[in-house]
TrEMBL record:
Organism for this UniProt entry: Clunio marinus
Superkingdom, taxonomy of origin: Eukaryota
Cofactor (UniProt): Zn(2+)
From-to range in the entire protein, with total length: 116 to 425 of 430
Protein name as annotated: Zinc carboxypeptidase A 1
Major localization class: secreted
Active site (record annotation): 269 (proton donor/acceptor)
Amino acid sequence: DMDWTSYYSTVEIHVWLDKLQQTFPQYITVEEIGKSFEGRSLKLVKLSKKQNNRAIFIEGNIHAREWISGATSTYVLNELLFSSDPEIQDLANNVDWYIIPISNPDGYEFSRNSNRNWRKTRSPVSTLCNGVDPNRNFGFNWLTADESGNLGASRLPCSDTFAGSRPFSEPETQAIENFLSQNYAKFDIYLSFHSFAHMMLFPFGHTSVRIPNFNDHLNIGQAAADRLFAVDGVRYTVGPTRETLYAASGVSSDHAYGHHRIPLSYTYEMRGNGDYGNHGFVLPPEFIIPNGKEVLASLVGMVQKSRQLG
Ligand code: 0X9
Ligand code: ZN
């Protein structure tokens, strides 16, 4: 069984999800929203303990090598189900959670079994190369340059930020898009889990023009980062992607905000660098639980602050 002391395979995670559904059929639903290029299941788990809750969407491990992002998705779900902390129970009871722990299973398995540093999907894109960056393959401002002419994505198939031949060229991103097109109205918050930079980024990546609810994103993000910091002293930087990190176009969280108008959208860049060692993407499994605890605490801060601001 899973205990968050190691990183698990896609199949192990999916078996765990299916077991949860069997154990808690009243409030856990597992749905296959599509299949990956290599035919793996894209599983989404829903936790809903009450009718008419608003919902939060979590997309994990869209980047193959960012293993902590998938592990944290399942950690959060497990805590929502089993924690006795009243603040966590409040999140579980009063929010519906839609979680895709492994959004890029082909890439994740390739990173586990062949090339630890793999980032993209695994579809053939030229005679030489495989893979599209799924976090450059969403439709909103796909392959769009910023004010300085920076695309924040690549047209070159062998690049690690290859945007694909067209928006949603990948079955993995298309499956998420199909789901969001049917369900966007349920969601107050879209969360895309990544590593590693200790950041909470919000739209946009393709322009430094500020979004209409910039201040809400900043204040709610800062409340989340403050709760995160209180756990273990890890300081996240909160800010808009283009200013805080770099130019990036066609990313999922901008699509969720800009196209589907989900009002709050964050990209988490979790542990990997800094005080706890410069591990980068290859974060040792003993950090799964500490990282999970602080991210979970941040969600408490995020939901409480967003209630306050209405
Ligand atoms: O480049 C990315 O896709 C993300 N960083 S990573 O090192 N995990 O690859 C950042 C995406 C920024 N997101 C938004 N524009 N919201
Ligand atoms: Zn990433």
